[in-house]
Amino acid sequence: MGTSFTLAITAIQIVASFLGIVTNGFMLAVNLLDWKHCKGLNASDYFICAVGFSNLSSQIWSGLHWFCQPFWNLGFLCPIAYALKMISIQCSLVVSSMLCVFYCTRILNLNNALFRFYQRHYQESYRSVIIKSFTVCTMMGWPLLWVQEKPSNLPFSNCTSNFSMSKTHYDIYFGIYRLLVLSFGYTFPLVLTIGSASLILISLLQHTNRMRDAFNTKHEAFIDAHLRAGYTILSILLLFVMYFITAIINIIDILKEGDRGYFICQLVSVIYAPALSIVLIRGNTKLKNAADALKARVGWVLQPKGYVKEDAGDLEV
Question: Is 297 a member of any domain?
Fold first, then answer.
């Protein structure tokens, strides 16, 4: 494989990592400023902060792990960086799916007693849901401290261990661990995201049909809420599917290190965090307004001194 291709992919990964740190840091900064000024945070803000913190952590630990790989003799630092990177990625996937479920509980209006009970319980206990998700992901990622991973994106490669046990016993235990991580860290969030997207789309179609039949335009704001939630959930689902495909490719070990496909999978994994943060910023009114204000401020600062924008009225003769 050509050196130019490798350098290009590496440069894109560095830019994507920097963009991920900036965008996720922006989400956290906006909400922290609101909390500091006692403006209060709603449930969606807590979920977005959890996703932003997970993505920011994964970007930082991924960079540290990438730096550690040429210097594996640094001792225990590299396994710690790898374990924390994978824990952060799993937290991001799980909490993102929980955010999609939260959007469903806020927007859907189903006449079902079980759904009503779940809706009320979920909206009241969102803090505990976030804490439990982080706790479970941390517990499931803890064994990675004792497993030397192959330089890969997932802890699912056939690697060696320092355990003093037979290869057969290690393969059995590691296979069970791999199945648990794949089920909870990847498959479970994917199912939640697909279910949330399906329910949002069905509800949007039903509500649109009712409005069309009744020639009623009083609930356009409700449709806008559906569209914003649908855009966010479908975008998260698309990113999730892309990341899930790269996960499966790494699990079954199709691509070897150095192949073009291997670098592309690594690139998709790096792009996931900044792309997800951009989706959340565009789908959240507060973050979108803050981003527009920051963009205008940066444009004003970078504007050349003494530059005066011409008014159209001044051009008239």
Answer: no
Q: What is the pLDDT of residues 120-134, one digit of tens each?
A: 777 778 889 899 999
Residue position matching structure tokens 């050196």: 3
Is 87 part of any domain?
yes
Cα 233 to Cα 200: distance, rounded to the nearest angstrom: 9
Residue labelled with tokens 């050349």 = 304
Q: Any idea what the CATH number is for the domain that residue 177 is in?
A: 1.20.1070.10
- pLDDT tens-place string over residues 262-302: 777 778 888 888 899 999 898 888 999 999 998 888 877 77
**Residue 301 falls within a domain, yes or no?**
no
Q: What is the pLDDT of residues 18-37, one digit of tens each?
A: 998 999 999 999 999 988 88
Specify burial of residue 114 (Cβ count, 10 A radius: 0-12, 13-18, 19+). exposed
**Amino acid 221: pLDDT:** 61
Q: Name the band, by pLDDT with cuts 50, 70 and 90, for residue 237.
A: confident
Structural domain span for residue 203: 3-289
Position 17 in a domain: yes
3-class secondary-structure state, position 49 = helix
Give long-range contacts, CB 8 A cutoff, 24+ apart: 148-153. Answer: 148/79, 149/79, 149/82, 150/257, 151/69, 151/257, 152/250, 152/257, 153/246, 153/247, 153/250, 153/265, 153/266, 153/269
